[in-house]
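task queued by scheduler; priority normal; single chain, no ligands, no partner chains; default sampling; output format set to structure tokens
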Amino acid sequence: MNPIDPQLPPGDPLVMLGLLASAILFAVGIVGFLSRRNMITMFLCTELMFQGAGLAMISYGRQHMDLSGQVFVIFILTVAAAEAALALGLVVLLYRRKETLSAEAWKELAES
């Protein structure tokens, strides 16, 4: 029996499936971000990581029968929307300067 909610089994398969899906989303986002050099692909991979984190929050909220996970996801989505607007504006600006979306073209901006 689950001490928090007697009707919810201790290993709820829906919660475990949500956590597995969030881990897969986050892992795909990390692998994509580290392996690709296209700025748009890197941006989309960060969005995948945001969605994976949001799904984990919802799953944990479901496990504890608490709405705070869903409220926190609203804040995550707000940050993701602001990041999307800024990142797309930056990508358009950088593309106009060098006519490429490769992150390798902007290596000279790194600190030595």
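post-processing summary
- The radius of gyration is 19 Å.
- The chain has one domain: 13-98.
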